[in-house]
Design a protein that fits this description.
mainly alpha, about 425 residues, Growth Hormone, Chain: A
């Protein structure tokens, strides 16, 4: 049997890496940027909020358009948009212009996960999807590992503006590979009969009747859509908080230099990589051992959610090394959670709706991120410090787990 599907997964992994390189760059370089552009802590909260608003709104349109035009064209359009926006960050002259380009970036980057989740549903059977999602989602952590030391060196050698131009260029290189290599399984010359049968092995179990005619708005009728969306609303802000605020937390509270942060963050996100792949592997392993999809997904998610309150104690740790280790648990647990939560859309909904439902959930997750990781932290950190935010974030996944249990149920495919 050929293994073309893993090559396609490598492309999704690379795209997600590029997506997050563009996304994390501002958070890492903000100690240098804010001095040159005279940006306050509260203004930084507004700038991240601009990205989050656009990202939130963009999810709805991106999911619908990707289901309409397909994952290949949808991914292309999204990546070109966000790469151009990333390059334009180099033109920023103050908080307003920087916030504008963050918003434009957010619109484009909202297409990454709907397109990648749809491509995974097209190329992998259900028993491999959580693992595949965990692997491509690990690209977000690889970006956070390799980015900081490279950005620290580039900022020292060439200045922060060049960093944005370089990351934007990596996206255009990926675009060439995507256009050259991506096809649907039945259209791909490299896929033999055995691999195609493996990819389509769920076909006999998936209903092709009424659910195949469902539209984007019809999905809102199902409690499963809201279960996925509310879980994203509650859990996504935790990741956004760490992504946006860790560099400033280490710089302002733990008194690390930019160079020291550049080496601390790769370790944290290496652990997140392990969590992303490991979380997807756990549920896939349980399914191979005969567990129902829903039970396997929820078991893996419960393990991850239970680790989050412990990890939140990073804010109370006396030594910086202990804080880094606890934050590493948080990022690993969240990514393991995310690999399984994303996969529920392809477990429950037909392939024609996978990107749309992912977009709906992404929109609610983005709104949660805007509220709990962009706007409120800017105020809370300014007046009360980081500790209340850390401790609050530690509870969100457990609440989201209860929502998943009651609204997503056994995660069987929906019936119209």
């Amino acid at each position: 049997m050929t293994r073309v599907r893993w090559g396609i997964l490598a492309l999704l992994f690379l795209a997600t890496t590029v997506n997050y390189l563009d996304r994390i760059l501002l958070g890492f370089l903000i100690p240098a940027i804010r001095d040159e552009l005279q940006i306050t802590t509260r203004q930084y909260g507004y700038i991240t909020g601009a990205f989050q608003v656009a990202y939130t709104v963009g999810f709805l349109g991106a999911g619908k358009l990707i289901d309409l035009f397909g994952s290949k064209i949808g991914y292309c359009a999204s990546l070109v948009w966000w790469s151009v926006a990333a390059a334009c960050h180099a033109l920023a002259t103050g908080a307003v212009s920087l916030g504008f380009w963050r918003a434009v970036l957010g619109l484009g980057e909202s297409g990454n996960f709907p397109a990648a989740i749809k491509a995974v549903a097209e190329w992998f059977p259900k028993r491999e999807r959580a693992l595949a999602t965990g692997i491509f989602n690990a690209g977000s952590n690889v970006a956070s590992m390799i980015g900081p030391p490279v950005f620290a060196w580039m900022n020292f050698a060439f200045g922060w503006r060049m960093c944005f131009l370089v990351t934007a260029a990596t996206g255009l290189i990926w675009l060439v590979l995507w256009l050259w290599l991506y096809r649907l399984p039945r259209e791909h010359r490299g896929v033999n009969a055995a691999e195609l049968a493996h990819i389509e092995s769920d076909a006999a179990q998936e209903s092709a009747g009424p659910t195949a005619r469902l539209g984007w708005r019809d999905a809102l009728r199902f409690r499963q859509t809201w279960g996925f969306g509310i879980a994203k609303f509650l859990s996504d802000p935790v990741w956004w908080f760490y992504l946006y605020w860790l560099p400033t937390y280490f710089f302002d509270v733990r008194k690390l230099s930019l160079e020291q942060i550049g080496w601390a963050l790769p370790f944290i996100y290496l652990m997140a990589d392990i969590g992303s792949v490991g979380g997807g592997w756990i549920s896939s392993w349980l399914i191979r051992r005969g567990w129902p999809n829903g039970k396997a997904r929820k078991a893996a998610m419960a393990l991850c959610a239970g680790a989050m309150p412990v990890a939140a104690l990073a804010a109370l740790a006396e030594h910086v090394v202990a804080a880094i280790l606890l934050v590493s648990i948080a990022t690993a647990a969240h990514q393991g959670w995310s690999a399984n939560l994303y996969t529920t859309t392809s477990d429950v909904f037909p392939k024609s709706l996978t990107a749309s439902v992912t977009g709906i959930g992404g929109c609610l997750g983005g709104f949660g991120g805007l509220l709990f990781s962009a706007l409120l932290p800017g105020y809370v950190v300014t007046h009360f410090g980081y500790t209340p935010v850390f401790l609050t974030m530690g509870t969100f996944h457990l609440i989201a787990l209860a929502v998943v249990h009651f609204l997503l149920g056994d995660m069987r495919e929906i019936e119209a």
